[in-house]
Amino acid sequence: MKRTHAGLVVAITGGAAGIGREIAHQFAEAGARVCIGDLSGHDARVVARQLPGTVHGCELDVTDERSFHSFLATTEALLGPIDVLVNNAGVMWVGSFDAEPDTATARMIAVNLHGVIRGVRLVAPGMRTRRRGHIVTIASAAAKVSPPGESTYAATKHGVLGYLTGVREELRGTGVRVSVVMPGVVDTELAVGTATGAAKLLQPGDVARAVLDVVERPRFEVSIPGYVSPLVHLAGLLPQRLRDPLLRRAVPNQVAAVRGSAARDAYEGRRVLGEPDS
Description:
Strand order of the largest sheet: 3-2-1-4-5-6-7
Number of helices: 10
Order of helices and strands: EHEHEHEHEHEHEHHHH
Strand content: 5-15%
Radius of gyration: 18 Å
Low-confidence stretches: none
Helix content: 40-55%
Mean pLDDT: 96
Number of domains: 1
CATH architecture: 3-Layer(aba) Sandwich
Largest sheet: 7 strands, parallel
CATH superfamily: NAD(P)-binding Rossmann-like Domain
CATH topology: Rossmann fold
């Protein structure tokens, strides 16, 4: 057990499955006290009972101010002041930009971007008053690149990185840390049916380990794999005629990956378009 994590109060959005669940698991194993929020409060409570240590589950809709405020207030009532907020909730629609439903566009902006802004705005003032705290946001390698077929998703992740860059500077010297974790394609329901490009497929545990590590050794940007950000930076130094073919070899074309496939239909219908389960 790492003493840096033992006793920490950690709140995690989108914590009932995938990356969020694994982050909760690893924090709990390390001795932190955890509250996971998820759109399905039932799923959050079931997962909380399955994890070791002190873990609570709550209903949370990151697109609703009252719901997010209630989640944070419940966490503090149960466990004490929040030391770490992990903004993990996210959704993704994949396909050609001109086929993207307006509902999907609005949902990605509401969850991926405004949900992060809302979480930071609600939790940071208390951390600043206590002069301690850490906000960790799970963004994506799409915060640095824009895969074809993920244009709006990438726009939300670029927006998250830009927003947190400014917030980090505003919080400088207050004792509040801000970090952005940017993984490539992770083996979760969100990424089902998509391609990984030149990078290997990541597991939720890879991202969770990066989150615990950045809480132990704070820094602003964390890419997984670690070579992604340097590669993008180097590519940015090249003229466009050389940059384009390099990035086309490294970055997956998700329009091609999902063309003719129904692999994402169930996830996107339920999580992005709000269709009832069949």
